Amino acid sequence: MKIKTDHITDLLRQQIEQFDVSIDVAEVGEVLEVGDGVARVSGLENVMSSELVELPNGVFGMALNLEDDNVGLVLFGESSKVKEGDLAKRTERVVEVPVGDCMLGRVVNPLGHPMDGKGPIDATEHLPIERKALGVMQRQPVKQPLQTGIKAIDSMIPIGRGQRELIIGDRQTGKTAIAIDTIINQGYTHQTDDPVYCIYVAIGQKASTVAAITAELDANGAMEYTTVVAANASDPAPMQYIAPYSGCAMGEHFRD
Description:
Oligomer: single chain
Strand content: 15-25%
GO molecular function: ADP binding; ATP binding; proton-transporting ATP synthase activity, rotational mechanism
CATH superfamily of the largest domain: P-loop containing nucleotide triphosphate hydrolases
Number of helices: 5
Largest sheet: 6 strands, antiparallel, barrel
Organism: marine metagenome
Domain ATPase F1/V1/A1 complex alpha/beta subunit N-terminal: 25-91
CATH topology of the largest domain: Rossmann fold
Protein name: ATPase F1/V1/A1 complex alpha/beta subunit nucleotide-binding domain-containing protein
Radius of gyration: 25 Å
Family: Belongs to the ATPase alpha/beta chains family.
CATH class of the largest domain: Alpha Beta
Helix content: 10-25%
Structural class: alpha+beta
Number of strands: 13
CATH architecture of the largest domain: 3-Layer(aba) Sandwich
């Protein structure tokens, strides 16, 4: 059999041209101990505060306690899936959530992952859950009322847009009902040039309760301008801890 040197040369040249040397460099640490939703990791010398750290079995953690020889992570998942000796990998980004119009009508967990079975969220923008608040001079004055649709509240103790308001009361006195009625009443603002978008954050509630609230909002057409962030009673404590921060980040996108 005659060897075609030209053909072999062409093949070698083609292989050399297509040869790709790609090296994935990542800072990796080792889990020292795990317990009560907290993991201690050594070897992550350059980790940032509030940085997202990837652990095995799809578990993520947030760096909170930065010490000289180890880092304390709060785990956003089952701590039973992480054990001593596992590798922890830096993601080099702080904990952030997707924001924008793509979040409207969706039910998500505090990390922005969908929980409603409507498919993935195609977000083009993300915001960190913790960032510096605007200074007093940059804030607009409270000059426009937020109509709740409840005459007793709107007439006697009106609420302004941009104002904080605490709804306080004993169990089964209608606190959630006031919030839900207020969200439903904001539908009229979407017929104007200044619409109100709503973020409902449910912390420590039963999944069935969150499902009932979502169904009520959907039945009244309010989910078109509402995002539900659910940190259920069965979720780990760190997920419930970051839930209000996630909700604020999603709402601040519409403010800005």
